[in-house]
Write a structure and sequence with these properties.
There is one protein chain. The protein is 41% helix and 18% strand. It contains 16 helices and 21 strands. The two termini are 28 Å apart.
Length: 537
């Protein structure tokens, strides 16, 4: 195939070029990347002749997503290729950080310090089979493969439409995809497209250390972050039982949340990882002998079929158990030292209940002003703002304390799964047969991509009650953070993830298998798209 990226060597060069365009989240590189990407796509003859089919869409903080459309004049069936171009930071590279975006130079530097690495990394480094660098696995090659595919489709006049979408911010809040779904709906309506498949290009993620199996994914795991603001009772350190530290109170719920199988789900024989604490700490900003009385905790929960309301119900039940146990232990201790307890209840409230209470106490205008002042603070991210809003409300409603306020902190990734879709079943059969026959490559189906992905924002099948619970209990929901649930419901097409094999995403030893990324996976995806373009079933 003629063209810019039609050979494995050209595709490798493109991938290294994209890696070289530094695009860490929340940096100037992330802002500039889509403009550079657009310029590169306009070099393709098809897009040079149809520049209106390549466009940029606004996200936030000057960041933009890119879409490119290959439109066959007689086709309506359309495959959407999804990728993200942001990367995580490079702190772990240490003094080699300046080389993190230069795969060739980084490999030379690694050769000089190879004794520092584990045996598996040393073997991969010596093999010459891998490229190294930040984003070389997650997920610049996925984008490069998609670029090569859409160019090839235009050159060979494939009988199907292809939309390429690449977004920023997947690694932080997925703002790029959340803003971008409305563009997908607009394209569908404007050009009479019929979306039949959302195909992501995230790389293969190992199930366990040392796993070298290669997978395709027919869904993507969900992630939600139930969080709590613990409000104890302040006291002087010399009179400890006259109050209760929020640190002490928080331990009761954290102990119940960590590794709790109550949150486990098993679907298609696959199980969600157990919940863990991502952040916990008191909110005292200065030293004094006053005990800390406000603590925040943020927990990570994975989902497969449960929605936000389901998670909040379990979370609330555990919080009430925790509060009761804490009060019982406090009373017991007071009894042992012969003093009367200063309180006999720890309230548990959902954030939505705290809002209704504050609204009745202060009125809607005052409440909105309190929240607005926090939302406008540029020094806090959405998670910090979430806790700060709940904190301000509770500081003004101390008659409710000691207490625990339950809320959600962004981001939220709803689970999505198409394993039972008959069309996806045929796609999987075609892919696995093709890979084995042409490359002697065994691809194993996994039902949920375990790395979290932007596929969460298409083909949403949840109920309104699930997302309403999330909206009401997420303090920053609205201008600062929102999820287009209704638009996601309208993007009705099954999902699939096929990406290249690599190792150690988000580590300094992040690496990509060269042959798999530039010879095998591109041909396997091309074969699939051609197959479904030529068949109507």
């Amino acid at each position: 195939m003629a063209g810019l990226w039609g050979t494995p060597q050209q595709l490798r060069q493109l991938t290294e070029q994209l890696v070289g365009w530094e695009s860490q989240g929340l940096t100037e590189g992330e802002v500039k990347f889509p403009e550079r990407l657009k310029a590169e796509l306009l070099k393709v003859d098809y897009f040079h002749n149809h520049p209106e089919f390549v466009s940029l869409g606004e996200v936030n903080w000057e960041r933009r997503y890119l879409t490119a459309l290959y439109k066959h004049e007689k086709a309506s069936r359309t495959v959407v290729l999804l990728s993200h171009f942001d990367t995580v930071a490079v702190h772990e590279y240490g003094d080699l950080a300046p080389l993190a975006y230069q795969p060739a130079e980084l490999e030379k530097a690694f050769q000089k310090i190879k004794s520092e690495f584990k045996p598996e990394m040393q073997e991969d480094l010596a093999s010459g089979d891998y490229l190294f660098g930040r984003g070389i696995m997650d997920m610049k090659p996925g984008l490069a493969i998609h670029m090569a595919l859409i160019e090839r489709a235009s050159l060979e006049n494939w009988p199907i439409n292809i939309v390429l979408m690449s977004v920023p911010d997947e690694e932080v809040n997925s703002a790029g995809m959340r803003y971008g779904v409305s563009k997908l709906l607009d394209l569908e309506r404007q050009y009479g497209l019929e979306y039949i498949l959302f195909l992501n290009g995230e790389p293969v993620f190992a199930k366990s250390p040392g796993d070298t199996s290669q997978y395709i994914y027919t869904g993507s795991i969900g992630k939600i972050m139930p969080s709590a603001l613990f409000y104890g009772k302040e006291t002087h350190a010399g009179e400890p039982l006259a109050g209760m530290t929020s640190s002490y109170l928080s331990t009761y719920l954290t102990r119940k949340m960590e590794w709790n199988p109550a949150f486990s789900e098993t679907v298609h024989g696959e199980e969600t990882p157990l919940p863990v604490t991502l952040t916990q700490g008191d909110m005292k900003e200065e030293y004094s002998v006053q005990t800390p009385y406000r603590t925040k905790a943020l927990y990570n929960v994975f989902t497969m079929e449960r929605n936000a309301e389901d998670i909040m119900d379990i979370f609330e039940s555990l919080a009430k158990e925790s509060a009761a146990e804490c009060v019982e232990d406090y009373r017991s201790l007071c009894e042992k030292v012969g003093m009367a307890p200063h309180f006999d209840e720890i309230r548990v409230l959902r954030y939505e209940e705290l809002v209704e209470y504050a609204k009745a106490k202060f009125g809607l205008d005052y409440l909105n002003q309190l929240i607005r002042d926090t939302l406008m603070d540029p020094e806090r991210d959405v998670r910090e703002k979430s806790f700060h809003i709940a904190d301000i409300l509770l500081l003004n409603c101390q008659e409710l304390t000691p207490g625990i306020v339950l809320l959600f902190a962004p981001p939220y990734y709803p689970a999505v799964n198409s394993s039972e879709d008959p069309f996806i079943g045929k796609c999987v059969a075609h892919i696995t047969h093709d890979a084995l026959e042409r490359f002697d490559l065994e691809l194993e189906q996994v039902h949920f991509f375990n790395g979290i992905s932007d596929l969460s924002y298409v083909n949403y099948e949840g109920t309104a009650s699930g997302w309403i619970s999330y909206e009401k209990n997420t303090p920053v929901y609205g201008d600062q953070y929102s999820i287009p649930f209704q638009t996601m419901q309208q993007l009705k097409a099954p999902v699939l993830n096929i990406g290249p094999f690599g190792k150690d995403p988000h580590k300094r030893t992040e690496r990509l298998h060269i042959k798999n990324a530039f010879e095998e996976i591109p041909e396997i995806i091309a074969s699939l798209i051609l197959h479904i373009g030529e068949r109507a079933d």
